[in-house]
Amino acid sequence: MTTAGEIMHPGAECVGEYDTLADAARTMRERGVGALPICGDDQKLLGILTDRDIVLKCVAEGLDPNRVRAVDLAIGRPMVIEEDEDAEQVLRIMEQHLVRRLPVINHPDHKLVGMISEADIARHMPQERVAEFVTTICAEKD
Asked: Which ranges carry the CBS domain (predicted)?
């Protein structure tokens, strides 16, 4: 059985809840990633911030990314998976909730230990299952 911990990108770096979107965008550029987990001062996961969020929910709305904080875009509770869960469960969660990135937490501390992206899935899962996953994730909503 392949686990979430085996396919994840370890050591996910958080953007702080009070960091600006401009700071988050610079971190994304430096790390070569399109999303960062948003963590509180207590390292609790508050959400996921994507480059698309910055563009559509800040820049396109005429807001200043030097003033808007990451926590302002942390809406709802993020989906997560524990690192010892089966990789097939990772795919089911991502497909069910139509998410392209999934934070991985450890047990029992529930601390962020990594992230799983579409690229991680493509590298570690059978080709047929990757094709099914991509079809589901990319399907247009009714």
From this structure: 8-65, 74-132
